[in-house]
Write a structure and sequence with these properties.
With 299 residues, the chain is α/β, with parallel strands linked by helices. Helix content is 41%, strand content 12%. It has helices at residues 13-23, 49-59, 73-87, 115-140, 156-159, 167-187, 205-211, 234-245, 260-267, 279-285, and strands at 4-8, 28-33, 62-67, 92-95, 147-151, 193-198, 257-259. Strand 1, helix 1 and strand 2 form a beta-alpha-beta unit.
């Protein structure tokens, strides 16, 4: 029986990679976001949820595009009602809605950071996830074995001792990790599992564009950003979610903070280039110690 999944925030980046990774295991994936072929979000970018759904289908699954703003409870409620009507169940919920890249002011103290942008960042990161969980988890727990994945940036261990760019960003990402743990306390006794999951240095569409490279020649960017050598494609974290979704013993991870690189060591999956980058171990053991860029032993 195919996995039924909802990936909230599947337009681009990690969300798209996760949706396609689930497609690789034959899942039916509802791909949600605000950008469609007829209506762009305030990001004003080319990626659309229809493209993501098509990529899911090409990978071997069934992709279903559904436009939804996850800050709007009515839209999320209607989305979950559609899944219930069409599928009768939900096996995997991925809370990946974010939309904060253009709101972050790097290394700017709270009294100087644009307040409206900072508060919007928190709404995008936390409120969207809470709204989606509120409506979707009731359906997910109707059948034992459901999985909730809260997508963050950085593990609990790393974030606990490292300031993450700004007060607003730090709160957003550490808050997601805590949210996963909180929901694990509520889901575990009901036969479901909740985890926080972080990709490493993600080669998202926006990141590749910013560095002036493509997925095919991304290593050219290491001439200017040497530690980019440890980066990974969005499909890598997608394969991490797929591995969790098909693990009959996934409950052993309930409440934990996980990474794509760490899970690759557990499950044996690889990135699209056949390697297993372990970005957070590299960042902690190598980059943060001021060592010269070298991913040897971390792939």
């Amino acid at each position: 029986m195919a996995v039924i999944a909802l990936v909230a925030g599947a337009t681009r980046g990690a969300g798209r990679g996760i949706a396609v990774g689930l497609g690789e295991i034959g899942a039916t994936v509802y791909c949600t976001g605000r950008s469609t072929r007829t209506q762009r979000s305030d990001y004003d970018r080319l990626e659309t949820i229809e493209e993501t759904a098509e990529l899911v289908t090409q990978a071997g699954g069934t992709g279903i595009a559904h436009q939804a703003d996850h800050l709007d409870p009515a839209q999320v409620e209607a989305l979950v009602a559609r899944i219930r009507q069409e599928q009768g169940r939900l096996d995997v919920l991925v809370n990946d809605a974010w939309g904060g890249e253009r709101l972050l002011e790097f290394n700017t103290p709270v009294w100087e950071h644009d307040l409206a942008k900072g508060l919007r960042m928190l709404r995008n990161a936390i409120e969207t996830h809470l709204i989606t969980s509120h409506f979707a988890l009731g359906l997910l727990i109707e059948h034992a074995g459901g999985l909730l994945v809260e997508v963050s940036d950085g593990t609990v261990e790393y974030n606990a001792t490292h300031y993450r760019e700004s007060v607003f960003y730090d709160l957003a990402k550490t808050g997601i990790n805590r949210l996963a743990w909180d929901q694990a306390q509520e889901l575990g006794p009901r036969g479901a599992t909740a985890v926080a999951l972080t990709p490493g240095w993600l080669r998202s569409e926006m990141m590749l564009e910013a560095f002036g490279v493509t997925e095919e020649n991304w290593r050219d960017a290491t001439e200017r950003i040497p530690h980019f050598c440890i980066s990974e494609s969005p499909r890598y974290v997608g394969r991490a979610v797929a591995a969790l979704a098909t693990d009959p013993e996934v409950a052993r991870f309930n409440g934990q903070s996980l990474s794509s690189g760490g899970l690759a060591q557990v499950y044996g999956f690889t990135d699209i280039d056949g390697t297993r980058p372990d970005a957070w171990r590299y960042i902690l053991e190598h980059r943060d110690k001021g060592l010269s860029p070298d991913d040897t032993g971390y792939r």
